Amino acid sequence: MNELATTNGTSLTPEQAFPFQKEIDTWNMDEAVARIRPKVEEHKKLSAELARDLWIANSVLARRGGDRRSEDAHVFGFCDFLELVGVSKKKAYLLLKLYVPEEDKLLTFDEYDERRLKSANPAVEELSPAQQELQSTKERLIAHAMATGERLFDQGWNELGCEKEYRIRVLNKKLSDIARELYDKKVQYNWKDDDYFSTTVLAQGKTYAKFTMQTKEQMIAQNEVLEMLSRYLESFGDPAIRMAAVCNIGLRIRSTINKMHEADLEYNKE
Question: Are 229 and 249 within 8 A, CB to CB?
């Protein structure tokens, strides 16, 4: 009489069918707050300590070449370390993203978003009214040039120093367009004497292998890309197809690097 039938013929007790019903019926807010708050504080403390330990481990393994950027990457990497300690890569990179080593602090999601937005958009209110007006005029002139290619010299283009910022934005836009061409099916593969990738990048491979990201966000993003690439290649059961897939990626990256080099040369002509 105390059992409930299920669709597959098995039966459940009331406790199984309605888990924690007694606790739900007797729940009290004040008691819940008193019981849960210490657990939350302890969880925050443990999360911060875990983030610190992971950040240190990641830094040490990166210096030893265990970050998949060097020739010794196959020996032991950060992801191998995560497997040993039993932390998922998704959780580890999330903690690294929120951790601020300079302050030994783990940010909340709101604090992280606030800092990111503040870094990307410096507060305009810190400028004086006159400075705000000049900045607004400069942005308007640059926006007009970006949209039409026309420089409004009679409205203060040179006086406000618009040219340098305009050229940087044009270059960044071109580089972004080139990067998006990775998805294009048409990839140039015969560069002849203009193959910057083969003549320079490969010749200086050790230098580029030691390149370090400028920010923690960039480091995390790079790790995510490399992990995704690894999973993609591991999805192929046929070694020949796997090799073809990685060669295809290599050609696209080579094409992108060469085109970015051309854009950089064009930017530095003057």
Answer: yes
